[in-house]
Amino acid sequence: MTAESPARAPEWLSAGAPHVWRPYCQMKTAPPPLPVAATRGSRLVLADGRELVDGIASWWTACHGYNHPHIAAAVREQLERMPHVMFGGLAHEPASRLARRLADLLPGDLNHAFFAESGSVSVEIAMKMALQFHINRGEHGRTRFLSFRGGYHGDTLATMTVCDPEEGMHSLFSGVMPSQVIADLPVDAASEAVLEALLVERGGEIAAIVTEPLVQGAGGMLFHDPEVLRRLRRTADRHGVLLIFDEIFTGFGRTGSLFAMEAAGIEPDIVTLSKALTGGTLPLSVAVASTRVFQAFWSDDAGAALMHGPTYMANPLACAAANASLDLFEDGAWRADVARVSAALAQGLEPLRGAPGVVDVRVLGAIGVVEFAAPVAVGALCQAFAAEGAWIRPMGKTVYLAPAFNTPDADLAVLTSAMRRVLGAGGVEGSGGV
Q1: Average of per-residue pLDDT across 356-381
Q2: Structural Rg of the chain based on CA atoms
Q3: Which member of 54, 275, 337, 400 is catalytic?
Q4: What is the arithmetic mean of pLDDT over 52-66?
């Protein structure tokens, strides 16, 4: 049976297909999804028994591999004790411990954790914090955000406004929400001067600068130098603007350091985390604010409080998974694994530099990218990779790998050889997508 054939599709897939609205695809024309029956280590086990090496760790979440026994045991134990309790007026040990541990791990005085369920929502919370930070201090004119071309921060309404307006997925909604200020990243002295001039003109209306440190992920896996982050910190400080780092993709080891900001030696006023936070087991996100930001809300005035509270905020099961994931990071073995993955990706993908349509091959940490001159055919490529034993889902002009850090060498070879065989043959052009 081929990857796209429905001949042996399980009954649950065919029964549910008319009712499940799938993400990021035109369902009328997209190939059917591959039915997954189980996960194991770095592999997806399909309903027909085939195994695919997962090259993107379920959208970058399963950093320790699937079904890690330490995380699974922590979740099982927490499930028996207390799967959930509301966080309004109540507290529980897993969230308290996680907040303290994150404060200890993050640089500077990023000490105050506000929990949610999804990465996009955590960015919205960070934006709301930034707006109210200025309001609470009596600055009512700062109602806009500055973000960057190539950036991507989520699919909810407010986060769409700080994504690159040309990236395509959100162009239909142009004009629906208030427009933000979009600029080029300050990658050199000239572009820093342009950004400075923009803030001289409009800085009084900017509440915060929002960016992804080191790697703009879903916007095209675009890398930039740590000096860019230092330029942003200096610019934000000169103009009284907050700096928000979206580390939802880059956080927890993906770029080679625990947090991407460490490469620049600076910290933001607010950082958002999700994805690998729970090791790919349960949804959880957090916006962590500096003491300076938090102090703007600390008041005898009830009206100065942050009036926000997702229903499943600080879900105990998810917090237990996150604490177990942090245990794995604290033993330090992940650093050698990321270096090993990085070397394998560099060696395995470099031969594609001369492939038809390829304009760049680049690697940073456990991220390997092959960029094309034009958008690629996502659905067709997914099927071709699956036939080679790999689960790789391109986006836009890029075909990339972001596997689990502990992916065995043999499985890394499966991924890179699949990329070479499929992409080296050419014929990858398509309509893009994610």
Answers
A1: 97
A2: 22
A3: 275
A4: 98
* Structural domain boundaries, residue 38: 11-67+333-424
Catalytic residue among 66, 152, 312, 400: 152
Active site residue 152: yes
Same domain flag for 58 and 102 = no
The amino acid sitting at 296 is A
pLDDT of 381 strictly over 70: yes
- Asked if residues 291 and 112 have their Cβ atoms less than 8 Å apart, the reply is yes
Tokens 């700096």 label which residue? 243
Choosing from 54, 66, 164, 246, the catalytic residue is 246
Pair 63, 166 in one domain: no
Neighbours of 192 (CB within 10 A): 18
For residues 224 and 352, state if they share a domain. Answer: no
In this predicted model, what pLDDT tens digit does every residue of 247-306 receive, in sequence order? Answer: 999 999 999 999 999 999 999 999 999 999 999 999 999 999 999 999 999 999 999 999
- Which residue, of 330, 365, 384, is where some domain finishes? 330
DSSP secondary structure of 283-318:
--EEEEEEHHHHHTT-SS-GGGS-----TTTT-HHH
- Boundary residue ending a domain (330, 356, 378): 330
340 and 314 belong to one structural domain: no
Positive or negative, the CA dihedral 23, 28, 32, 36 is positive
Q: Are 264 and 229 in contact (CB under 8 A)?
A: yes
| 348 and 282 both lie in a single domain | no
Buried b (16+ CB within 10 A) or exposed e, 76-105: eebeeeeeeeebeeeebebbeebbebbeee
Residue 275 annotated to the active site: yes
Q: Are residues 286 and 162 in the same domain?
A: yes
Please answer whether residues 356 and 422 qualify as being in contact, where contact means their C-beta atoms are separated by less than 8 angstroms: no
Residue 85 lies in a domain: yes
Assess whether pLDDT exceeds 50 at residue 7: no
Same-domain status, 244 and 375: no
Greater confidence, 426 or 373? 373
Which tens digits make up the pLDDT trace of 199-208? 999 999 999 9
Together in a domain, 171 and 270: yes
Is 274 contained in some domain?
yes
Nearest to 64 by CA among 277, 315, 365: 277
DSSP 171: G
Instruction: Count how many domains the chain has.
Output: 2
Which candidate, 270, 264, 307, 267, places its Cα nearest to that of 286?
270
**Residue 188 is a catalytic residue:** no
